[in-house]
Amino acid sequence: MSLEPRVERKRVLVADDDPRVVELLRITLANSGYDVLSAQDGREALEVAGRQKPDLVILDVKMPKASGLEVCESLKGKGGEHCPPVILISGQADPAARLRGLTSGADDFLTKPFSPQELLVKMDKIFKGFEDSKHLSDVSVEFEREIKRGEEQLEKVNNELKRLLYSKDTLIGLSQQLNSSLRLETLLDTFLLSVVGQLRVESACFLLVQGWDSRTLVYCASKGVKRELVKNIEISFDSPLGSVLSSADTPLGVDELADSPGVSEQVQQIAAAGFMLCCPIVVKSRLIGLLLLGERLHGNGFTQLDMEMLASLCSSAGIAIENARLYNELRETYLATIKAFVNTIEAKDPYTRGHTERVAEYATSIAEGMGLSPEEVETVRFGAILHDIGKLGVYEQILWKPTELDEEEWKIVKSHPEMGASILSGIRFLEKAIDIVRHHHERLDGKGYPDSLQGDALSLNARIVCVADSFDAMTSDRPYRDALNVKEALSQMEKKSGTQFDRRVVETFRKLIMEGTINIG
Ligand SMILES: [Fe+2]
Ligand SMILES: [Fe+2]
Q1: Nearest ligand to the C-alpha of residue 414?
Q2: C-alpha of residue 93 to centroid of ligand 2, in Å
Q3: What distance in angstroms lies between residue 470's CA and the mean position of ligand 2's atoms?
Q4: For the chain, domain boundaries
């Protein structure tokens, strides 16, 4: 049995009404490796060509029933896939007949008598031409496919590049935002929004250690998932899942995690909330948080680029969270120190005891009641806590003097807003509170101190603390007068609305007292 590949023999149809010619051509072509079909007239030639699909047709021009020219025209006129090359054979040697043959669509022309060799050479040429053109056509089809594949690839790369560029921009923007945001809530919110948008995931959730020395991750914030599904997720570092996460430095698929021993219950809780990826947030080799990511929108998996982006985002988030924590700790420590100072002063003076606490409480409630942002509310709280810090610089004898102050003494007391502002200057996180400290004794009509600010020049934050401070002063006993009751104090403040106090602030304050939101001891 031969192992050589089978070469398909070409089929040639010879149509001539002279059987001798047919026989001669059959022998010649068969000897050259062709299969030969034959027909004795034009109609038979068309029938055989239609049925057997020859690779080449040799036609005598003069044939009964249909001439070679007619058969040629018919074959070529059909077009389509099977349109074999045609060689016309004629006894007429005149150029007009040759021209007519060629215009009928024939590929070549032979004049009797011809040598078999001449026919074979012409056939070779025709077949080669056909193969070349078929090859060209195949190449062209393949080339078109290649171009299309290239275009698709290019579009894909282009889209990915666009996304990459967008992501890098956003990443830089996010890093800046994270670095500038020192409020943990704002920071986590920005981070989650960015993750959901950038990685196009359905949901994301953030677990965080509560306190620097805590060893448990608890729910902190989420996007795109019902809170009930995630609020109870807690992962102790001492649990099997906690120890797997503590030693991981790359995102882990929920499926992968499920293979670890002893983790199934917690992993099931995470999977049930729709999460499929757990990304540890590590700072200084210590696990401080965990980002859980849901499925990608459109069902695509995470690409290498996504994972790189995620690693970068998690690293930025880790640093920003640590900064925020340190900042918050520092802030709270500083505030506690200042409160302790203020309390020391107040503790010695029975008439102002608890004043700062009350002013801070009133002012914070008014700020919230007026719909200020959480950041502004915090500024108001700080400003209120610190508003009288300048009294640290006023002689105790004057502050606690049981009788009315003389002009000189009043001058010293009235310097406390400026003194306070100067104590706080240079402390970055208290910058915004300085305005309140300096201006809590200003009046809308410009008759206040120290800068005699008027109207719009007086900030809302300062106006809020003015009202809270004055109200507490009015409702507290002083050595030289008795306290007013709440009703009297509010009525006096209303009378002074528009001149000393801001009308909206006083109205809000009254409403909060009436509805019980502010409880006056
Ligand atoms: Fe004051
Ligand atoms: Fe005060």
Answers
A1: 1
A2: 127
A3: 7
A4: 11-135, 181-325, 349-514
Q: How far is the CA of 342 from the centre of ligand 1 (A)?
A: 12
What are the pLDDT digits (tens) for 186-198? Answer: 778 878 887 888 7
Query: Which ligand is nearest the CA of 384, by number?
Result: 2
- 354 CA to centre of ligand 1 in angstroms: 14
| Spacing, Cα 361 to ligand 2 middle (Å) | 13
What are the C-alpha distances in Å from 374 to residues 43, 175, 381, 510?
Answer: 97, 22, 10, 22
Per-residue pLDDT tens over the stretch 439-485: 999 999 999 999 999 999 999 999 999 999 999 999 988 776 788 99
Superfamily of 349-514 according to CATH: Hypothetical protein af1432 (1.10.3210.10)
**Distance from the alpha carbon of residue 430 to the mean position of ligand 1, in angstroms:** 17
Q: What CATH number has the domain spanning 181-325?
A: 3.30.450.40
- Output the CA–CA distances (angstroms, integers) from residue 500 to 247, 445, 472, in the order listed: 62, 6, 16
Distance (Å) from CA 382 to ligand 2 centroid: 13
Distance CA 226, CA 222 (A): 8
The per-residue pLDDT for range 65-99, each reduced to its tens digit, is 988 888 888 887 765 556 788 888 887 666 676 77
Ligand 2 center to 456 CA (angstroms): 22
- DSSP secondary structure string, 18-68? -HHHHHHHHHHHHHTT-EEEEESSHHHHHHHHHHH--SEEEEESS-SSS-H
Which listed ligand is nearest to 416 at the C-alpha?
Answer: 1
- CATH for 11-135 (3.30.499.10, 3.40.50.2300, 3.90.1640.10, 3.10.450.710): 3.40.50.2300
Task: Kindly report the pTM of this predicted structure.
Answer: 0.50
